[in-house]
Specification:
Helix content: 40-55%
Order of helices and strands: HHHHEHEHEHEEHEHEHEHEEHEE
Number of helices: 12
Shape: elongated
Strand content: 5-15%
CATH architecture of the largest domain: 3-Layer(aba) Sandwich
CATH class of the largest domain: Alpha Beta
CATH superfamily of the largest domain: Response regulator
Structural class: alpha/beta
Distance between the termini: 72 Å
Number of domains: 3
CATH topology of the largest domain: Rossmann fold
Strand order of the largest sheet: 2-1-3-4-5-11
Length: 341
């Protein structure tokens, strides 16, 4: 049966014996917010389905000047870290009656700019951006247009907007200190995208932890240029062929660490017998690898939930937060990929 465009909220309301406002709230996913009973929600939904009701979203958007859509831009949707954050954002958005348009910038600033342009054309009400992190001017231009924006993961110190980040510095310090505690002095660092806030903070933690423990840094042990698996693979190949190779590798992303594992196996070495490994950004599958991988856990649920909560508050005009940068703690998860020497 085709959709009945003549069906209105009033018709559904009359059949259900409730107000048109109640029908509107049910059909926009706001039953829980307005404490509408499950019985009423089911009744309204059933009647709207029977009548093939389809709301005229475009007309409603023009009338109230809201599209009830949120734009989200991530650097790599194939990375489980960003996929998890996106899932939490989408879940909370749905509860609030918003849809999410997700764009993957593929760690490319040009694609990030294109994504912003497309989202603006779609008239999204606000944006959550996990920036590539190399340039900021195109994002500052959004702010000048009074489009609510929340920054997640990578940030720009000069922006006076809400940003939610993991405590990358402390996570890095925890990882290096744990390796030192287990007797390691030759610790390699495979870094991510250079000059991004995330990489700077993790590198600073690595350097400072060496200084805290009075261990000189071997500059040849710092390799890499992005957060991808191939970067981890190539970086590890280089490190394992150093004349005085490291006893431990700190991979600064989950994908970097997967690439490192592949390279270590190709060299016919074993973790942790021949070389130890710590990953930044814990993943569920790390428990099932052989051996399970010690890692720094980021609280992806907090990153996603806080970011969408701040954006929704902004869209509702309830901007009450004082801290512009919210730091989410990290946690070292100890497994069996580090040998005591």
């Amino acid at each position: 049966m085709s959709a009945n465009k003549n069906t209105t909220l009033k018709v559904i309301a009359e059949r259900a014996g409730v107000s048109a406002t109640t029908v509107s709230r049910v059909l926009t996913g706001k039953s829980r917010e307005y404490r509408i009973s499950k019985k009423t929600e089911d009744l309204v939904t059933r009647i709207s389905d029977e009548l093939n009701y389809e709301p005229d979203i475009l007309a409603r958007s023009l009338r109230i000047k809201q599209t009830f859509t949120v734009g989200m831009i991530v650097p790599d949707i194939s990375n489980p870290f960003f996929a998890s954050i996106t899932r939490y954002v989408e879940n909370e958005s749905r509860k609030a009656g918003y849809s999410v348009i997700v764009c993957d910038s593929q760690e490319d600033t040009k694609l990030e700019k294109d994504a912003i342009r497309i989202l603006k054309m779609r008239k999204v009400d606000g944006m959550i951006i996990c920036p590539v992190g190399k340039e900021s001017k195109h994002i500052s231009n959004i702010l000048k247009q009074n489009i609510p924006v929340v920054i997640v993961d990578r940030y720009f110190p000069e922006f006076d907007v809400p940003c939610i980040v993991s405590d990358n510095y402390d996570g890095s310090v925890q990882a290096v200190n744990y390796l030192v505690k287990n007797g390691h002095r030759k610790i390699a660092f495979i870094q991510g995208v250079i000059n991004t806030s995330v990489n700077r903070d993790r590198l600073k933690g690595y350097i400072d932890a060496h200084e805290m423990n009075n261990i000189p840094i071997n500059k040849s042990f710092i390799v890499g240029e992005d957060f991808g698996e191939r970067n981890g693979y190539i970086g590890t190949k280089i490190l394992l062929n150093e004349p005085d190779r490291p006893t431990a590798i700190f991979g600064t992303s989950n994908l970097i660490s997967i690439g490192a594992i592949r390279a270590i196996k190709e060299e016919h070495l074993k973790i942790p017998d021949d070389i130890s490994l710590i990953a930044f950004d814990d993943q569920p599958y790390f428990d099932f690898l052989d051996p399970p991988i010690t890692s720094v856990r980021q609280k992806k649920d907090d990153l996603g939930n806080i970011s969408i909560s701040l954006l929704l508050n902004s869209l509702r005009g309830n901007i009450s937060y004082e801290k512009k940068r919210i730091m989410v703690p990290t946690e070292l998860i100890v497994r069996r990929s580090v040998r005591k020497i």
